[in-house]
Specification:
The structure is a single chain. By secondary structure, the chain is mostly helical. The chain has one domain. Helix content is 67%, strand content 0%. α1 crosses α3 (78-140). It is elongated, with a radius of gyration of 47 Å. The chain crosses the membrane at residues 48-65, 77-97. Residues 158-182 are annotated as: Disordered. This is DUF1003 domain-containing protein. InterPro entries: DUF1003.
Amino acid sequence: MSEPRSRVRLDTPRDTRRSPLVRRPSYDDDAFGSFAEKFARFMGTAKFLIYMTLFVIAWMLWNTLAPGEWRFDEFPFIFLTLMLSLQASYAAPLILLAQNRQEHRDKVIAEQDRQANARAHADMEFLAREVASLRMAVGEVATRDFLRSELRGLLGDIDELSRPKAPEDQQAPPDQVSRPGP
């Protein structure tokens, strides 16, 4: 009996091995992305716009004012249009790549900010609970002003008890003390 053919499953990815004759070019994603960001930043500067403007003006002047045999792109400037289109066709993907990398960095920073905010919120909740418990504990503890007033009162009572009594106060009973009349 022959062996059954291996069944192809739809939920299993295909083997993507390529023949050794076909090689894909390899490149460093970070280096290429860094280059794209630098290029996109440069293209967004006034210096780039000035350089491009000077290049186009020089191109047009050369191909308009130079002797006929030296001109290489006559009036409709088809070759100039082709070069500017080629430059734009490379610039657009590089700018998009730079934007994607910036978006990824922004997502990472936003996630870090979210985590920091969550930690700060938890810390604030903890501190609020601690402050509330301290308020409750302080409510049960005598305050400094309360202790001072109580000590002043006790000091006054001690002063009254430690004063020698006057002789007339000792002889007359308290209810018979003479009071000056009106």
